[in-house]
# Entry
Amino acid sequence: MENGTHDGTTTGTDATTDTAADTTMGAGRGTDAGKDTVYGIVDQWQTERPDLAEAFWPVEVVARIQRMANIVDRGLKTFLAGHGLEVGEFDLLAGLRRSGPPYALTAGALIPAAMVTSGAITNRIDRLVAKGLVERVRDEVDRRSVRIRLTASGLALTETLIAEHLRNYAELLAPLDRATSHGLGEALRTLLVAQGDTAQPPTSS
# Structure
């Protein structure tokens, strides 16, 4: 998502630099909500390839998901930078917090939700240990096993960040009513499940 589309259907990954939405649009495709950049992109393609005009409907969905992902990612990075964190570090803190007391998991248990390699998880852990937000502790039952645990400072920071994070997301979705937001969430859930992105059973190992 961070790199945008690569099939020639968009003009870039930065929504703030794309101005194609201000170009002449095809008749009958406007909405009361306005004409966004993807609207302009699809309109241009339909003009250039009228033989494929009806085939461009997936772009209207996928390209908008990609552009919103870029917008959300930029906003989240800015928000977390103000707290001295990177997105991956916040994901790790949140994963530990939602695991419940004692807020400790093995590195392996943190990988599925993060969708990164073990090396990337290790790097995130190292940075958070250096910041005093997590610590490595021996498992009380299996002393050979090491768990990653939130420190008191890490727990306090995570509690604050989660509340602010949810408010930011609510503001982002403010143009939609609750029912529309729920419907959008359900539609995206269907797509993700179809692609194999399914819930992992809770685990501490």
The chain has seven helices and three strands. The beta strands are 104-105, 134-138, 146-150. Residues 1-29 have pLDDT under 50 and may be disordered. The two ends are 29 Å apart (CA to CA).
